[in-house]
Amino acid sequence: MMASSRANLEFLKRYFARDVFAESCGIELVEASNGTATAVVRIEERHLNGIGIVHGGLLFTLADMAFAAAAHTRGHVSVSVSSTISYIKAGRGKTLLAKAREIARNRRLATYAVDLVDETGEVIAAFQGLAYVKNDPLPDLGE
Amino acid sequence: MMASSRANLEFLKRYFARDVFAESCGIELVEASNGTATAVVRIEERHLNGIGIVHGGLLFTLADMAFAAAAHTRGHVSVSVSSTISYIKAGRGKTLLAKAREIARNRRLATYAVDLVDETGEVIAAFQGLAYVKNDPLPDLGE
Amino acid sequence: MMASSRANLEFLKRYFARDVFAESCGIELVEASNGTATAVVRIEERHLNGIGIVHGGLLFTLADMAFAAAAHTRGHVSVSVSSTISYIKAGRGKTLLAKAREIARNRRLATYAVDLVDETGEVIAAFQGLAYVKNDPLPDLGE
Amino acid sequence: MMASSRANLEFLKRYFARDVFAESCGIELVEASNGTATAVVRIEERHLNGIGIVHGGLLFTLADMAFAAAAHTRGHVSVSVSSTISYIKAGRGKTLLAKAREIARNRRLATYAVDLVDETGEVIAAFQGLAYVKNDPLPDLGE
Questions:
Q1: CA–CA dist D103, D130 (Å, integer)
Q2: Is the pLDDT of residue A2 over 50?
Q3: Contacts A–C by Cβ distance under 8 A
Q4: What residue segments make up the domains of chain A, in order of their start?
Q5: Rounded Cα–Cα distance for residues A117 and A44 (Å)
Q6: CB-based contact B20:A46 (threshold 8 Å)
Q7: Which end of chain B, N or C, is more open, meaning fewer C-beta atoms within 10 Å of its C-beta?
Q8: Topology, domain B9-136
Q9: pLDDT at B140
Q10: Which residues from D are below 8 Å from A86, CB to CB?
Q11: The whole model's pTM is what?
C-alpha cells in the first residue's frame, strides 16, 4: 500500500500537535512510517494513580497516539472504533514508549498492535486498536 | 456479597483522591455503592483531540475511575487486568458521566460494564473492565 | 432504522440454514427482529470440554449466530470484524440461549451484545461482536 | 518458569483428548512446550458458514485449543477467563493452524496470543486469550 507523500513524520507531528489532550499529557510522537509509529512520554508525578504506579489512562492515551499515527501513515483520515489494553506489569519506569505496528488493513478497517515498553525494553502493557478508514485524504495543513 | 463498612462513598472518594492522574484530568467520583459507581467530568478545551471531539484517552480515564470505584465497593483492593472501549458517537457534550455496573464477580475476578453518557443521556462509548481481586481489605486511611 | 421487508424471521431462518457449521452443532435461530435475535442449543455430550462443562467454542458459535442474525435484521449483508467472549460461570444447563441486542449502529459499523443464559435464566457468558455493514441488500433466496 | 515434567506433548495430547467438542470438530493438538502450542484442523464442508468460508466458531475453537494447551505447558490447571478474535481475511485454505505463544504470565493470570494461519502461512485471524491459573497441578491420567 502506497503512503501518500504527505504522510511523513513531519506532517504527522504537525497533524497530531492539534491533539490537545495528548499534548497536555506530555506525549510526543517520535516516529511514524509505513504502518508503524512510536510515541514517548517522560513520566511525572501527575501521571501516577493512587498506588504510585503509572495510570492506565495515561498508558492508554500514549498507546492511542502511536495507534492513530501508525494508521495515518497510509495517507487517509481514520477514526478509532475500539481498543483493548491488557496490563502486564506495573509501570515504574522514567520514560515509556508506545510502539505501534500494523496487524491487518483493508480498504475500510485496520488493526494495530501497540507494545508499551519502559526504558529497559520491558513490556508493561499491550494494546490493540481497530480503526475505520475514511475516504478523506490527509488535509492540507498549509505552511 | 457484603461490602465492608469501609467501602462507602466518603471512604472511596478519599481513597481515589490519591489518583493524581484522574484528579489532574478533572475527573470526580460522585456515586459508589454495591457494585456500581459514577464518575463525572466537565469537558474543557484541554480534553479534546485533533478533530475537536473528546479524546478517547479522557473517555477511557473517566470510565476507568467508575470501574475501579465500583470494584472497590466490595471491600477488597483490586487491580485492573484488561479493559476494552468501543466508541459509539462523537463526544461533544459539556459534561460526561461514566456509569459502572457489576456484570460478574467471583472470589478472584470481577467484570464491570461502564456506559459513557453525555448530559442528554446519550451513550457515546461503552467500556468493559476486568479486575483481579486481592486478599487485601481496603486500607485504613486514618482520620 | 427501517428493516427491509425481507429481514424477517422466516427469511433469516432460511438464510442462516446455509450456515453448515452452526447447523452441525445443533444451533437453531428462534427469534430475530429489529436488531435483536435469539439462538438456542440443546446441550449434548459432544458439546462438552475436557472437564465436563460446555465448551467455550460452542458458546462462541451459539452467540455468533444470534449476533449475525440480529445484525441482518436491518436488511443488509454484514460480516463480523471481531468478537469478545467473557466466561462468567460454568455452563451445566440442558438448554442454552444466546440473546443478542443492538448496542450501536451506524452506516458501516454495528455492535451487538449477546447474553448466554441457561434454562434458569442465569447468565453464563457475555459476548460482544462488531460487524461491518456492506452495501449489499439481503439476497433473494427464491421460493 | 519451570514446567512440570508432566506437561509434555504426550501428556497434553491425552489430557486434551478428553475435550469432546474440539475432537468432534476434527481439531488436533500437534505441538506444546514452554508456553507455546499449535493445533491443526483439515477443513471440511461441515466447517463452513453460510457464505462458504470457514466459520468463525470453528476458528475460535481451533485457537482456543492452542491457547489452552499453551497455558497448560506450565504444569498447572487453568481456565479461560475471556478471549477476543479479530478476523483478518476470509479463510479458504485446506488446512488451518493455530499457533499460540505466551504474552505475559504471573502466578494467577496468563495471556496468550494465537495466530490463525492457512497452509500458505497467511494470517487469517488473530486471537487473544486470558487464563486464570489454579493451584491444582496437572492430574495423574494413569497409564
A1: 10
A2: no
A3: 14
A4: 9-137
A5: 16
A6: yes
A7: C
A8: Thiol Ester Dehydrase; Chain A (3.10.129)
A9: 86
A10: 103-104, 111, 128, 130
A11: 0.90
Which amino acid belongs to residue B72? H
Q: Which residues pair with B67 in a beta bridge?
A: none
Helices (H), ranges, chain D: 9-17, 20-24, 56-72
User: In Å, how far is B142's CA from the nearest CA of chain C?
Assistant: 37
State whether residue C47 is helix, strand or coil. Answer: helix
At C128, is the secondary structure helix, strand, or coil? strand
CATH second-level architecture of D9-137? Roll (3.10)
Residue B107: its chain D contacts at CB < 8 A? none
Cα–Cα dist C20/A20, whole Å: 51
Give the three cell numbers for residue A52.
Answer: 504510585
Predicted complex ipTM exceeds 0.90: yes
Question: Using one digit for the tens of pLDDT, what is the confidence trace for D42-61?
Answer: 999 999 998 899 999 999 99
Q: What is the pLDDT of residues D53-98, one digit of tens each?
A: 999 999 999 999 999 999 999 999 999 999 999 999 888 889 999 9
For helices D56-72 and D9-17, the axis angle rounded to 10 degrees is: 130
Distance from CA of A120 to the nearest CA of B (A): 22
Contact B81 D132 (CB under 8 A): no
